[in-house]
């Protein structure tokens, strides 16, 4: 139980301290702007997903510089989330900051929606 409380506290902290790419993507996802409700920093124990659309069982992850060299960890994390019934798509911070429209389009396509 303590671990879950720590994970939830971490998620709250991450929501409060978003990176510029996270803020840019949240501005696209929030308020049902893509026709689906997204939440940010959602606990999917033992992980915290950057963004999630519960109705679509879709997680959107942003990978920044801190993910360099962590491909094996990210792959294991994705596999664990997929085993729980989630689909996971990943974008780099650079993609979000230089091509936000393309990122939004890819998210819509992943949800089977028109853009």
In short:
With 115 residues, the protein is an alpha+beta fold. Helices cover 48% and strands 22% of the residues.
Overview of this protein structure:
This protein has 115 residues and is α+β, with helices and mostly antiparallel strands. It has a single domain (2-110), classed as Endonuclease, Chain A (3-Layer(aba) Sandwich). It has helices at 2-16, 20-29, 71-83, 93-98, 100-110; strands spanning 39-44, 47-53, 58-63, 87-92. A 4-stranded mixed sheet has the order 1-2-3-4, sandwiched between helices. The protein is globular.
Blueprint of the fold:
Elements: H1 2-16, H2 20-29, E1 39-44, E2 47-53, E3 58-63, H3 71-83, E4 87-92, H4 93-98, H5 100-110
Parallel strand pairs: 3-4
Antiparallel strand pairs: 1-2, 2-3
